[in-house]
Amino acid sequence: MKHTFLGLAVLLLLSSLTSCVVLSPKKYKALLARQDSLNMGLSESQLKGNNLESTIKKLRKDTADLGQELSKLKAKYAEMDGNYTKLRNNSSSEISKLSGDLKAREQRLKEVEEVLRKRDAATNQLKEKLQSALLGFTQSGLSVDIKNGKVYVSLMDKLLFPSGSIIIDEKGKQALKELAKVLKQQPEINIAVEGHTDSQKIKNLGQIKDNWDLSVLRSTSVVRYLTEVEKVESVRMTATGKGEFQPLADNSNADSRSKNRRIEIVLSPKLDELYDLIKQ
Fold this sequence. Notes:
Layout: H1 2-20, H2 25-133, E1 142-147, E2 150-156, H3 157-160, H4 170-184, E3 189-196, H5 211-229, E4 237-243, H6 254-260, E5 262-269, H7 272-279
Parallel strand pairs: 3-4
Antiparallel strand pairs: 1-2, 2-5, 3-5
């Protein structure tokens, strides 16, 4: 503004002087240059003023946006603070509940471990009883082993049956008789009788069509003898035939095939107590 007033004053002075004084060309050009400079300064000042107003508007908008964002953050903080207060108030009761659940689970685990310990002890005791009762038949192809918590009494077919037959011979009956004495003393034991054969094809055995037939019929012969003659409870018995499909050896020679022809009596303890614990 100061420059503007100065420019006007110069112009007035020039106009007054021109009426009475004639300026030299040099001075006149100087005055015109001064006027141009003042006009340029005025334009720059106006431009700067416009830029300043735009900057002020932008700063005001940014301030308003920041105010809204701050309000949102304050609301979010208030919500989180409320949730934290609720959590802190409930933490003691939740921890007590979780602690109680953990103790209950630990107690149940101890009970399951105790049942399994009893099962293993009973299984080992049963094995010892069977080995003692059937000691006289071990040289004839009888063995007693424990696998997966079960007792396996394996009898080679030559101990029980004549070749290709499903009728138990006298030596086989004696072995099953001694086995039945132990089984009747163990009512908590389930009994599965499995028939197994080698891979040789069946020839000239009448109604016996294949190894499936032979394995099933031999296992049912053993079950009938144990239940009907030795009076082992039928409800505890299961008869199955496995055919040639669970061999102990590779069937490549006569000795290997003889190991595969067998009856396996699988004895497993009833686990009702354990199942009840698991259901809980």
